[in-house]
Structures are given as structure tokens and as C-alpha cells.
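Need a sequence for this fold. Nothing fancy.
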């Protein structure tokens, strides 16, 4: 029987320990060290780590690279024939994962910086959060839906429409305004922060979790750790099933 356990924490030792496994397959243990986390985000919370400035990609380039990758997956989905259910299911798993990570980067780091530092951008960010909210619910439904369900393809098409609209708005309106307001050095600092958050961010949608700081900073780390344990547990289960078959 598959028996996940979650949430053993040893804050005194600056370690969180997650276990996820089964009596048959053995337990798998992940450790999130708080010292690593603090190194990642910067002990003063500034997001400044050890990498040289030249090695860091700016925040807008990081977000645009995510947009290009998810558009590549959308096109692959659209090219895949209606009978290729398994292939479509695999593509949607990757789309849901990439969108979950991307939303976390924007909601935890990028949008708060934009609201604080770009004059007049607050309403735009609030609209963006509502667009994320719709996309996150669609992703959450797709995350649990079998690809042979009669609503699966329609739901993916609506997801794609929503994300394309959102991406177009960001790239045509928001990003140019942010680039002009923040400047290269601040965008590189923010880019480094985004890359670090990506290592800790959730890989599945959590539509009921907070989407603004400080709530999403805490829930994002916990959900990210849980998702990674869930993904690794699923991989172990799939490998064991493959060996047994
Ligand atoms: Fe966005």
C-alpha cells in the first residue's frame, strides 16, 4: 500500500525533512536545508547571492524564455492528433508543471517588485493575478483529469487561449514598462531571484493558496517541497511498476 508521510520538521537543526514512500518500495527522504534556502534568497532577503552580475540573466529574459517554452508545448499539443491520448496527457503534464513554476516566479518575486517599483502598474498586476487565477484553476482541473475525458481537449484549448492572451499583454505592455522603470542592474538582481525561486517553487497548481506576499512566500516553499516529493514518489512508483511488468 502506498503510504506517503509528510511534514517532519526539525527547525532547531535548520532542516526540514520530508518523507514519501511505501513499505514495499522503501521511503525516500528529501531535505531542505534552511541554510541553503537562506543562501539562495540572500540572508537579508534581497535575493543577492554569490554569482557574478555578468552571469545573471535579467528577469524579463527569464520570463520570456518560459513563455517560449510553454508556447512550444502548446504548438506540440495542437499538432497532436485527437486519438493520441497518452501523448496529449504527457504534454499537458509538462504544460501544467511549467505554468505552475512560472506563476510562482511572477507571484512571489516579479509582481511584488513591479507593484512596488513601477509607477502606475499596480492595477495591471491585479488584473494579471486574476488571469493567473483562472489559469491556475484550469491547470488544477487538468492535473486530475484523464486525457480520454470528453472535456480534456476543450479545457486545454481554453487554457491555451487564456495563457496566450496573458503572455501577449505582458510582452507588449508590462515588460517594456518594467524594463524602462527598473533598469539593467535591478532586472539582473530580480532575474537571479527568479532562478533561485524556481528551485523551490510548486510544480503543481494550488488554486486555493495565497497569490501575494507574505502568504505565498511561505505556502510556496511548503507546496514546492510537497510537489517535489509527490513527483519523485510517482517516478519511483512508475519505475517499480515498469520493473514488475
Ligand atoms: Fe503572468
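Here you go.
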Amino acid at each position: 500500500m502506498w503510504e506517503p508521510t509528510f511534514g517532519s520538521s526539525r527547525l532547531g537543526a535548520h532542516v526540514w525533512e520530508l518523507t514519501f514512500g511505501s513499505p514495499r518500495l522503501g521511503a525516500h527522504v528529501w531535505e531542505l536545508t534552511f541554510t541553503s534556502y537562506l543562501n539562495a534568497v540572500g540572508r537579508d532577503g534581497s535575493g543577492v547571492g554569490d554569482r557574478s552580475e555578468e552571469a545573471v540573466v535579467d528577469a524579463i529574459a527569464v520570463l520570456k524564455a518560459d513563455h517560449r517554452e510553454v508556447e512550444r508545448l502548446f504548438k506540440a499539443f495542437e499538432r497532436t492528433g485527437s486519438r493520441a491520448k497518452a501523448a496529449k496527457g504527457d504534454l499537458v503534464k509538462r504544460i501544467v508543471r511549467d505554468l505552475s513554476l512560472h506563476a510562482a516566479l511572477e507571484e512571489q518575486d516579479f509582481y511584488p517588485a513591479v507593484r512596488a517599483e513601477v509607477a502606475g502598474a499596480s492595477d495591471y498586476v491585479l488584473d494579471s493575478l486574476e488571469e493567473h487565477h483562472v489559469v491556475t484553476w484550469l491547470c488544477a482541473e487538468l492535473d486530475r483529469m484523464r486525457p480520454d475525458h470528453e472535456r480534456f481537449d476543450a479545457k486545454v484549448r481554453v487554457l491555451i487561449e487564456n495563457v496566450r492572451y496573458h503572455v501577449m499583454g505582458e510582452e507588449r505592455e508590462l515588460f517594456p514598462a518594467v524594463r524602462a522603470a527598473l533598469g539593467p542592474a535591478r532586472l539582473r538582481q530580480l532575474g537571479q531571484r527568479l532562478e533561485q525561486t524556481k528551485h523551490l517553487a510548486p510544480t503543481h497548481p494550488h488554486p486555493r493558496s495565497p497569490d501575494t506576499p507574505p502568504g505565498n512566500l511561505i505556502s510556496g516553499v511548503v507546496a514546492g517541497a510537497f510537489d517535489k516529493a509527490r513527483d519523485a514518489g510517482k517516478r519511483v512508483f512508475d519505475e517499480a511498476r515498469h520493473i514488475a511488468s
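For context: The pocket of fe (ii) ion is lined by residues 106, 128, 132, 166, 170 (CB under 6 Å).
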